[in-house]
Every structure is written in C-alpha cells, then in structure tokens.
Amino acid sequence: MTCEICGFTYLEGNKEDEQDHKRHCKKVEKARRKYGSWLMTYSEQEDTKRRYNEIVDNDDAEMSVRIRAGWLLLRAYFSASVR
Fold first, then answer.
1. Which residues contact 24 (CB under 8 A, 6 or more apart)?
2. Which of 5, 12, 62, 71 has its CA 20 to 30 A from that of 55?
C-alpha cells in the first residue's frame, strides 16, 4: 500500500512496516505544518508532474502558461525533496 499523503509504500498488516510508515508520515506532517499549503501531498506531486511536464515542453503553449506550469512543477519537486 502507498500512502497518498507521504508516498511511503508499506505492507498493510505488517507491524514493522506500519510503524515505519507512521514515523515517516509524522515527519511529512511536521513539514506540512512548517511549509503550509506550499507543500503538496504525494498524490498531488505525481499528478502535477504528469500534467505539467508536457506543458513546459510544449513550444506552442503561451509563455505565461508555461511559466505557471513551471512554478507548479517546482512546487511538486520541492515537496518531494522535503518528503
């Protein structure tokens, strides 16, 4: 199972895995409190990367749209680095 908040993959029902996940998720939640809404959840990060990489690479898209997509990607990659 993969946690949608922190992205940690663990075996549900395995006590050690669940404890590791709980510790990791607490760290991610602490970072979310520190960085606020700027920090994305794991599922938001993955969705953002899927959607906006294509826009940044699209030479036919308006520059303002590409810049906005770039900022969202920066936010997604920052969130992943904190995680």
1. 6, 8
2. 5
Q: Which residue in 40, 3, 28, 33 sits closest to 18, CA to CA? A: 3
* pLDDT tens per residue across span 6-53: 888 999 999 999 999 999 999 888 888 888 878 888 889 999 999 999
CB 65 within 8 A of CB 55: yes
* pLDDT at residue 7, rounded to an integer: 83
Residue 69 near residue 52, CB atoms below 8 Å: yes
Residues making up the chain, counted from first to last: 83
